[in-house]
Amino acid sequence: TNQRCGGKTPRRSSKKAFATRKNNETRKETARREGGTMSKRTVESSGAEEGSSPKRSKRVIVWCDGCYDMMHFGHSNSLRQAKAMGDYLIVGVHSDAEITKNKGPPVMNEKERYAMVRACKWVDEVVENAPYVTTLATLDSHNVDFCVHGDDITTDADGNDTYQMVKDAGRYKECKRTEGVSTTDLVGRMLLMTKSHFVNDTDVDESTTGKSPYTKLSKYVPTTRRIVQFANQSEPKADDKVVYIDGAFDLFHVGHVEVLKRAKELGDYLIVGLHTDQVINRIKGANYPIMNLNERTLSVLSCRYVDEVIIGAPFSVTADLLDRGVRIDVVCHGAVPAPNDENGRDPYEVPKERGIYRQVDNPVTLTTSKIIERIVKHRLLFEARNKKKEAKELAVINAISLQTPSRSPPRE
């Protein structure tokens, strides 16, 4: 990997050439020891001059891998950052067997996780059944330039860094982890039946003593910058057919992805209306929604079929929304009937009267409630998995702190 020395006087060309040859020889030898080979693209790219802008004469291929269990906007944000480092993003997704062996059973099965990663708008290609430990051979087999991962800790079943091989070969880059969300955090919200993620409550242990900063329950703090990063910067054209669909889209999953895909097929530009936390909680009760409005907004915006999101959309599609809001040509909803509004009326009464309502059938039977049922049914397994993950993270953090006492966990 090229290292830039900001503000330093460039070396003479002869020294540069020697350093480049030496660097390539070292990386080739490392690749040979690990059983991989350096691609021609990688060797050529390492010849860039220090202090110069990276040349993009050839497509830069980036690799990410992971479990992507209960895929959320934190996963999407890491993929967004990785895509920005290159031109083409390949994402390897681990199998159920690999995840169970190294960290415990996943909530979502591998087919569901493969589909979720494919639906992310920053992903160009998905590799199924990717190995849990990232090797040079894996990168080379897909002609990848380098691997990108977040600045959190990932270890295998024995507690070893799963990216050590690619780090040693200089083919590893880091992106910032998104604070305040993780699969572990979402599972915790369901197991503890908390509401602190969308109302002020005191039923969550906020203490961080003896806890991993990557595993503890936390609350996502939204920013307009993040929403802009996720949002599409396009408006519907004059002749586009604009489709509108609304709902909770809680714990964004493959059922949501499929209905959005089918809704998009009804037109050219898809707008998703997201109901507020209070409206959803009034209808569904308990601690719904599991993800708050800001979190759900980012999750939906990361989907490749979505063009725009109305944050805090009204529960009923009113004449006001259709006539004075955004231009809407088609209003659609899934096959499951929506409950009546507070006034006892059908929330889709107006679009039905205008003849612009369409029902979208969905062959995927997964729902947010079924995901929660999985968690509750296997509560002990998931609690044990979370504790095991936290223990491994703490062990690595403690080892690092002994070497560099002043180091604190990275934050975005």
In short:
39% of the residues lie in helices and 12% in strands. With 412 residues, the chain is an alpha/beta fold.
How would you describe this protein?
With 412 residues, this protein is an alpha/beta fold. 39% of the residues lie in helices and 12% in strands. Helix 3 (73-84) links the parallel strand 1 (61-66) and strand 2.
Amount of beta strand: 5-15%
- Number of separate helices: 16
Largest sheet: 5 strands, parallel
Q: Average the pLDDT over all residues and give the rounded result.
A: 80
Cα radius of gyration in angstroms = 24 Å
Structural class: alpha/beta
Provide the succession of SSEs. HHEHEHHEHEHEHHEHEHHEHEHEHH
How far apart, in Å, are the first and last alpha carbons?
A: 23 Å
Please mark out the parts with pLDDT under 50 across 5 or more consecutive residues, or reply none.
Answer: 1-24, 26-54, 199-218, 406-412
What topology, given as strand order, has the largest sheet?
Answer: 3-2-1-4-5
Overall outline: globular
Question: What is the percent of helical residues?
Answer: 25-40%
DSSP summary, beta strand count: 10
Keywords summarizing the entry:
single chain, 412 residues, alpha/beta, five-stranded parallel beta sheet
List the helices and strands and how they pair.
Elements: H1 13-34, H2 40-45, E1 61-66, H3 73-84, E2 88-93, H4 96-102, H5 110-119, E3 125-128, H6 136-141, E4 146-150, H7 164-168, E5 172-175, H8 183-192, H9 224-230, E6 242-247, H10 254-264, E7 269-274, H11 277-284, H12 293-301, E8 308-311, H13 319-324, E9 330-334, H14 349-353, E10 357-360, H15 368-377, H16 379-403
Parallel strand pairs: 1-2, 1-4, 2-3, 4-5, 6-7, 6-9, 7-8, 9-10
